[in-house]
Structure formats: C-alpha cells, structure tokens
C-alpha cells in the first residue's frame, strides 16, 4: 500500500513540476486573450514572434470582443510588449489602454503607435501630462465598443457617417 501512495505522490509531483500540459504557454499565432492578460498582469509575458522579439501576439478580428472586454480594466501593468521598432522603454501602463491599442492595431492592420498611450489631440508634445486620465480611457473604451457594435450593421448610402470606421473620431484622443 505504501508503494501505491508513493507512486501517486510521485505522479502528483511530476504533474506539478511539468504543469500537466502547456497551460502557461501562449501560441503566438493563435493566442488566448485570457492567458495573455493573465501573463501581462503577472509580469510573465515572454512569448516571442518568429523573428525572436517579445511582441504582442497575432490577434485577429475575432479576438476584438474579448480584447474589448478588458478595455475598462485600469490595472497598472509593469510592462507591455511594444513594437520592436519602438524607441520607448515602456513603464507602467493601464491594461485597458493596452487592449485598446491592440484593437486599434487590428483595425488599421499595423501598429497603432510606437508607444501604447492615448493622448489628447491638442497636446503640445508627448509628455505624460497629456496622457489620458482613467475616466478618458473608459470613455475611449466606450467609443471602441460602439464602433465594434456598429460594424455589424450594413453600411448604406443612407447611413453615411464620416466616423463609421474610426472609433476615436471626434473624441479629441489619438494614439501616441
């Protein structure tokens, strides 16, 4: 009987050490939004692109609803994987703002910006004093959610809207 107990304990130990699978591994080309957010919050995100850079994984349009569900999360994260061409080192940033940055990057098909901050359009420069407040990030999130919802409706000549495909149109916010 003690041999059976030792065998069970050994199996539990192996599962614990081996994590019983790859639940903590994020697939760069087919990422899981929840796992990505969990790793960002824990400061453990290290998934590399095929080029060897730690970058935001290849999220697709299908991921936008899930990304938007985190867009009002104002948790400060220690780092965010900026584009490899970015001259900025990073620093603390709100998780929700990062999720909006990913959505914007999907929308335009390229990096939304080299940093990951929304700023006011009339900013004299790109100092932190021009970054959006928590309330303004929540407002930007509302605009992105409305934009995504409205994309499900057909665009007709009777519903011409100059802001149809620009969530930040008229908000006074832009990406930096």
TrEMBL record:
Pfam family, one: DUF4943
UniProt entry keywords in alphabetical sequence: Signal
Highest taxon, organism lineage: Bacteria
Extent of the signal sequence: 1-21
Protein name, entry field: DUF4943 domain-containing protein
Species in which this protein is naturally found: Bacteroides coprosuis DSM 18011
């Amino acid at each position: 009987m003690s041999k059976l107990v030792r065998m069970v304990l050994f199996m539990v130990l192996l599962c614990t050490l081996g994590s019983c699978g790859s639940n903590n591994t994020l697939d760069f080309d087919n990422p899981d939004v929840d796992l990505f957010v969990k790793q960002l919050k824990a400061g453990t995100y290290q998934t590399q692109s095929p080029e060897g850079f730690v970058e935001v994984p290849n999220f697709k349009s299908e991921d936008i609803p899930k990304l938007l569900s985190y867009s009002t999360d104002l948790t400060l994260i220690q780092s965010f994987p900026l584009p490899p061409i970015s001259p900025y080192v990073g620093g603390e940033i709100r998780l929700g703002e990062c999720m909006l940055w990913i959505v914007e990057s999907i929308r335009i098909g390229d990096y939304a910006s080299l940093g990951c901050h929304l700023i006011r359009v009339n900013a004299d420069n790109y100092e932190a004093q021009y970054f959006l407040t928590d309330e303004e990030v929540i407002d930007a999130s509302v605009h992105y959610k409305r934009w995504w919802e409205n994309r499900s409706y057909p665009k007709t000549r009777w519903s011409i809207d100059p802001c149809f495909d620009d969530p930040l149109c008229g908000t006074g916010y832009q990406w930096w």
